[in-house]
Design goal:
alpha+beta, single chain, Glutaredoxin
Length: about 160
């Protein structure tokens, strides 16, 4: 099964697939949390969404509570926080696990891909990022501390757009 065919519910619980959520467009996939020191990255993620959505790009947030319980909210609380605090318009999925026995299959496919320094395997913290092309192929992986507006991320996004 391809990455884009994998089922995942939207934050509101509606069944979907990653391909339906991304509309088959290049996307930046990010495990997100509302109570993390990196949570302000939502601002730059939304800026990427606003700047490139019209050119066939989307950000997709995957809420995850595996790192020190930093995403404890219900779907409604997560949606309210993201909308009210950061003006998030990009799609969010159901809360998932990105590591361990209950790792979501999407992350089982993503984690073998290396960062620029060659690191693979488990997600290290909230806001780790994967850039995929429109066919679901992983183009790049970025450590949590790499900001969404880092020039290397922006250049990689732009290289995938029409």
């Amino acid at each position: 099964m391809s990455l884009l065919d994998m089922p995942i519910a939207r934050l509101d619980g509606a069944p979907s697939t990653l391909g339906e959520i991304t509309c088959g467009r290049p996307a930046l996939l990010v495990n997100v949390a509302s109570k993390c020191g990196l949570t302000p990255q939502y601002t730059a993620l939304e800026e990427l969404q606003e700047k490139y959505a019209g050119r066939g790009f989307t950000v997709v947030g995957f809420p995850c509570n595996q790192f020190m319980g930093q995403e404890p909210g219900t779907p409604a609380e997560i949606q309210e926080f993201c909308s009210a605090t950061y003006g998030v318009t990009f799609p969010l999925t159901e809360k998932i696990e990105v590591n361990g026995e209950s790792r979501h299959p999407i992350y089982t496919e993503l984690t073998p891909n290396p960062t620029a320094d060659g690191a693979t395997g488990d997600i290290t913290w909230n806001f780790e990022k994967f850039l995929i092309d429109g066919s679901g192929t992983v183009v790049a992986r970025y450590a949590p501390q790499v900001a969404p507006d880092d020039p290397t991320v922006v250049a990689a996004v732009e290289s995938l757009l029409e």
